C-alpha cells in the first residue's frame, strides 16, 4: 500500500513539470499563431477564460479540503504511533528499570545481571519492532551489537511478533526471580506478592504498546479513499494546465507580461504543492522504516533508552548506602528553605 502511494506521489510530482511546460508551450504556440488579442479564436475569449478560472477555483477548494483531511489523518496516525506506541513502550521500559534498580541495587554480578538482562531485552524489543515493520528477518546485526545472544537468536528466528515475544521472556524471568529455585538465581525478588504483579503489568503494557504500533503499520489506508483523492488532484492539475494555457496566451497577446508571469508561477506552484502534500502524507503512514525524514530515529531512540535507564542503575548504585549514614542532606535542605523564605 505504501509503495503504491509513494509511486503515485512520485508520478504526480513528475507530471507537475509536464503540466507547466505543456501549458507554456501551448500558450506560446497560440500567441505565435494568433499574433494579437483580436485574432484569438472564440474559444479563448474573455468569458471562456473567466469560466475556466472560476471552475479551477472550485476544484482547488475541494482539493485543498480533501488534502487537509488526508494530512490530518496521516499526522494523527504518526503521532499516535510515536506517543501511544513508542512513548508507551519507552515509559514502561523506564518504570521497569526504575523498579529493577530499586529491588536489585547491589554492585555485584548477580544484581548487575538482572538489571542488564531486562534492560537489554527492553531495547531489543524496540529494535525488533522496527524489523517487523520493515519485514526484516535478519537478526545478525542485533547479535553483533550485543542486544541479542546466540541462543536467543535461535529461539526468536522462526517466531512471529519477535518484539512481543521478548516481553514474554521478561515476564517469565520476573516470575523466576520471584518464585524460582534459589540455586538457579530465583526467589530473590523482594516482596514478590506485590512486586511481581506490578512488574509483570509493565511487561504487558510494553507488549501492548508494540502491538498497537504495529497495528497501524499493518492497517492500510482504504484504497477507495486514496483513489478518490488521487482523481481529484489529477483533475485539478489538468484544469490548472488548461486554464493557465488560456490565461497565458491571452496575456501574451495583450502584452500583459506580469499576468503571464504570475500564471506561470501558478501552474508550477499548485500542482507541485499538491503532489508534495500527497508524498508527505504517504511518508507518514509507516514511520518505522527509518529511511526518510518523516521516519522515527530508530538508532537515536535505542541509544537514549540505554543511556536513560543505565542512568537509573548508576544513580541507585552510587546512593544505595547514603540513607544508612545519617541525613546531613536534610539539614542542608532545611537551611536552604529558610533562606528562601
Automatic annotation (TrEMBL):
Gene Ontology terms for molecular function: chloride channel activity
Lineage: superkingdom: Eukaryota
InterPro entries: Bestrophin, Bestrophin-like
Residues passing through the membrane, by range: 12-34, 54-75, 228-252, 258-280
Coiled-coil features, chain-numbered ranges: none
Keywords assigned by UniProt, alphabetized: Membrane, Transmembrane, Transmembrane helix
Gene Ontology CC terms, in alphabetical order: membrane
Subcellular location: Membrane
Pfam name, any one: Bestrophin
Family in the record: Belongs to the anion channel-forming bestrophin (TC 1.A.46) family. Calcium-sensitive chloride channel subfamily.
Protein name per the record: Uncharacterized protein
Amino acid at each position: 500500500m505504501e509503495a503504491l502511494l509513494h509511486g503515485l506521489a512520485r508520478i504526480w510530482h513528475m507530471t507537475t513539470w509536464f503540466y507547466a511546460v505543456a501549458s507554456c508551450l501551448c500558450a506560446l504556440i497560440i500567441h505565435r499563431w494568433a499574433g494579437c488579442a483580436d485574432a484569438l479564436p472564440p474559444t479563448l475569449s474573455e468569458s471562456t477564460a473567466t469560466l475556466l478560472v472560476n471552475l479551477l477555483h472550485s476544484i482547488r477548494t475541494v482539493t485543498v479540503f480533501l488534502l487537509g483531511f488526508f494530512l490530518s489523518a496521516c499526522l494523527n496516525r504518526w503521532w499516535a504511533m510515536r506517543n501511544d506506541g513508542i512513548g508507551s513502550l519507552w515509559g514502561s521500559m523506564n518504570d521497569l528499570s526504575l523498579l529493577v534498580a530499586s529491588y536489585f541495587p547491589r554492585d555485584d554480578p548477580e544484581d548487575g545481571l538482572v538489571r542488564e538482562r531486562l534492560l537489554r531485552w527492553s531495547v531489543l524489543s524496540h529494535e525488533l519492532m522496527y524489523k517487523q515493520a520493515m519485514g526484516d528477518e535478519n537478526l545478525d546485526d542485533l547479535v553483533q551489537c550485543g542486544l541479542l545472544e546466540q541462543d536467543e537468536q535461535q529461539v526468536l528466528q522462526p517466531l512471529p511478533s519477535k518484539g512481543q515475544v521478548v516481553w514474554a521472556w521478561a515476564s517469565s524471568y520476573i516470575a523466576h526471580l520471584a518464585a524460582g529455585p534459589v540455586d538457579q538465581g530465583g526467589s530473590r525478588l523482594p516482596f514478590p506478592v506485590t512486586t511481581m504483579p506490578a512488574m509483570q503489568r509493565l511487561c504487558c503494557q510494553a507488549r501492548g504498546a508494540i502491538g498497537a504500533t504495529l497495528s497501524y503499520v499493518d492497517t492500510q489506508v482504504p484504497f477507495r479513499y486514496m483513489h478518490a483523492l488521487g482523481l481529484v488532484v489529477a483533475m485539478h492539475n489538468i484544469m490548472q494546465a488548461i486554464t493557465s494555457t488560456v490565461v497565458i496566451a491571452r496575456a501574451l497577446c495583450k502584452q500583459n507580461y506580469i499576468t503571464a508571469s504570475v500564471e506561470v508561477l501558478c501552474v508550477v506552484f499548485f500542482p507541485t504543492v499538491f503532489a508534495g502534500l500527497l508524498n508527505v502524507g504517504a511518508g507518514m503512514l509507516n514511520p518505522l522504516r527509518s529511511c526518510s525524514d518523516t521516519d522515527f530515529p530508530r538508532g537515536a531512540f535505542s541509544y537514549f533508552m540505554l543511556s536513560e535507564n543505565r542512568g537509573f542503575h548508576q544513580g541507585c548504585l552510587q546512593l544505595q548506602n547514603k540513607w544508612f549514614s545519617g541525613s546531613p542532606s536534610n539539614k542542608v535542605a532545611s537551611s536552604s528553605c529558610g533562606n528562601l523564605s
